[in-house]
Amino acid sequence: MSVLEEKDQVFLRSPIDASRLEREISFRLDENCVHLTHRVTWHGKTPIELAPWGITQLRLGGMAILPLSASEGLQPNRNLVFWPYSQIHDERLELHDDLILIHGRASDRAFKIGNHNSHGWVACALGRALFVKRFSSDDSGNYPDMGCNVEAYVKDVCIELETLGPLTILNPNESVSHNETWEVFTDSEYPPNLEAARAISSRLSSK
Question: What is the pLDDT averaged over residues 119-146?
């Protein structure tokens, strides 16, 4: 792993691995925000199709908040994708018409859910801390994992907020990037319940 500095940015770059991929994360601080760019470069000999995937691990105890599209109209506008090990009745999952909530409680059984998120944010609240992860959403893009651009995972160590870019075909030595902005707020108390989650959603969706 190499570390490079350029003006107000820091670059973390991996060597080319056995899969012939080179990964890089650059980040820039801006008050309470961190702007990140995930970059993947293909060093194989023939074209490959892949999607960039940004995983953020957070401590247990919090509540992950994933917004859903509006529950109106006649055409389908929401998808929920479950991994084979996920139990639909897992007590850490709360499904509502407007939100998916995942509670960060430890269990021997892993749970993961994904969906297509057109709001451009996901969040995790813990006590007085609210972590927000913003990203670009391409509603016309072809996403992996049955159309997911957002995924959340929890087991016994952490809770993960994951964002994905659309599937892209890379020729040798070409790259694809995926941008995120992280924000942290500590101006309120955030209890792990639906009322607090809806207040957070209203605040973030209005920006």
Answer: 94
Across residues 66-83, what is the average pLDDT?
Answer: 89
Instruction: Please identify, in words, the CATH class of the domain defined by 2-205.
Output: mainly beta
**Does residue 171 surpass a pLDDT of 80?**
yes
For the chain, the average pLDDT equals 95
How many Cα neighbours within 13 Å face the side chain of 73? Answer: 7
- The set of long-range contacts for 8-16, using a CB threshold of 8 Å and a minimum separation of 24, is 16/43
Number of H helices, E strands in the chain: 2, 17
Q: Where are the domains of the chain?
A: 2-205
Nearest-5° angle of CA 187, CA 120, CA 159? 65
Instruction: Looking at 148-193, list the stretches that DSSP marks H as alpha helix, in order from N- to C-terminal side.
Output: none
Contact 63, 126 (CB under 8 A): yes
Residues 6+ apart with CB under 8 A from 44: 20, 172
Contact at 8 Å (CB) between 192 and 103?
yes
